[in-house]
Amino acid sequence: MTREGGAVVLDRTQLISTLFALIPVPVAVVDSGGRVILSNSAFTDVFNGIQNLDSLPSQHELEVAGGATYELQTVPLNNQGMKIVYALEITNEVQLRRQAVHLEKMAAIGRLVSGVAHELNNPLAGILGYAQLVSRCELEPSARRMIEVILSQAERAGKIVQSFLSLAAKTEPKRIAFDLNETIRNVVRLREYQAHVENIAVTADFSKDLPYACGDPDQLEQVVLNLFVNAEDAIADSHQRPGSVHLRTFVQNGRIHLSVTDNGSGIHARDMARIFAPFFTTKDRQHGTGLGLSICAEIVKEHGGELYAWSTYGSGSTFTLELPIQREIAPETVEPVRVSEGLALRGKQILVIDDEVHITELIFDVLTRQGARIDLANSAVEALEQIKTKNYDVIICDQRMPGVSGQRLYRLVESLNGDLRHRFLFVTGDVVSTQTKRFFTQVGVQYLRKPFRIHELVDAIEGLINRSQPLGS
Ligand SMILES: Nc1ncnc2c1ncn2[C@@H]1O[C@H](COP(=O)(O)OP(=O)(O)OP(=O)(O)O)[C@@H](O)[C@H]1O
Ligand SMILES: [Mg+2]
After folding, report:
1. Whose CA is nearest to atom 27 of ligand 1?
2. 107-143 pLDDT, tens digit each
3. pTM over 0.70
4. For the chain, what is the radius of gyration of the CA atoms?
5. Number of folded domains in the chain?
6. Is residue 263 within 6 Å of ligand 1 at its C-beta?
7. What is the residue range of 197's domain?
8. CATH number of the domain that 252 lies in?
9. Which residue among 96, 225, 230 has the greatest number of ligand 1 atoms within 8 angstroms of its CB, and so is best to mutate?
10. Among 101-110, 118-127, 265-274, 323-332, which stretch is predicted with the lowest mean pLDDT?
11. Has residue 331 got a pLDDT over 60?
12. What's the 302 CA to ligand 2 centre distance in angstroms?
């Protein structure tokens, strides 16, 4: 800047080169061959060492050391092919895009898992049901032992399937009282196999009289699952064998606590403040999005709780989850009917509707032994014809059937004869879906989960018979 005859004259070259140097956006001038002939300090900071932009891959997105991503834009400068190249940072957009793809993938896997889990409920109901029938026969001690193994393993498989179903279910956040110990058990069941394969010993010390927590048990299950998977990853990272994960629940300062302790890699002091931040991860892209703990922290906060960590780098970490105690709200109200055993079904007319032939046969076998008279239908349409011609004491109906669903059949029967709706007992493998649960709650209909125990089936039918009014009254 100079002063000529009192007027201030700008030195344009100096101004431009100062502005060029000051711009926080990386900018460079390149010749027709892509060689960098001029660049500002932001460019040097980000693309340190890059001399020729034509040598870069043709796509314009560029990931630099440190993990940031830039998009290169060019503007022609003159007719000798020189160009101005500037770079816009798009790290957040790229992460959000990756996250969207990841979530879509997870949603697809969720749908697949819930479909598979649902399909498994039918064969499991058959295995469990017939194993129970056999166990009621006269058996040699060795055969009885074997059948007991089949029974307990089928029940275990049923619980795993149930855990998958509740995990995959997309539900609106609930506000119910729930047992955190049970939530943790579900997670342990889910990871049991993986932990075994990775030689990780899982131990638990659950408070026997843990009060109920309040909120959404499915969301809290996600939190515990995340902590558990993080612990497994840290153990894998440290190559510590055998690995150990210890879960403890207790009450302290009027709050429910869960601590998850692992003997994995531990967390470096410099990372401690960042582990709950979105996108912070020390894992490679295939293994981590860095969103796990930030989502967990958010869920826990919404439940009025806290999540924090303590760690010694090199020897392990403890994550502690704190939740308020819930005293007022009763546990979920919709529960399968449970009435005392012993009331005879003798002479009762029962219709069994299920598209799975072995389920209808199983129920037939069980109930005819109790003296009931059974009709079978393999579809809702078939069932409707039978209901029109016969007076049933109980209608046992599968909820999910091809063609007309159990729910739709219920509505059709209700419009034919309102009294009959009190005689419905649904059998379902899909009870966790919000829509199904809402239906059961709204109409107050009884249901049983597949796979069920024989006494649960008999109890439920007896409960219905006791409760329902005779037709026409
Ligand atoms: N138990 C643990 N031991 C050691 N480091 C841990 C533990 N839990 C979390 N971390 C550290 O915190 C980081 C963030 O964890 P977070 O769960 O948010 O994401 P992630 O596990 O990397 O990815 P994602 O959960 O999306 O798969 C991890 O990358 C890891 O460095
Ligand atoms: Mg994680």
Report:
1. 288
2. 777 777 777 877 888 888 889 889 988 988 899 988 9
3. no
4. 32
5. 3
6. no
7. 176-328
8. 3.30.565.10
9. 230
10. 323-332
11. no
12. 19
Ligand 1 pocket, residue 399 CB under 6 Å: no
288 lines ligand 1 (CB under 6 A): yes
Q: What is the rounded average pLDDT of the residues 364-388? A: 91
State whether 284 and 408 are in the same domain. no
Confirm whether 154 is domain-assigned: no
**Cα 290 to ligand 2 centre (Å):** 6
**Together in a domain, 188 and 318:** yes
Which pLDDT belongs to residue 333?
43
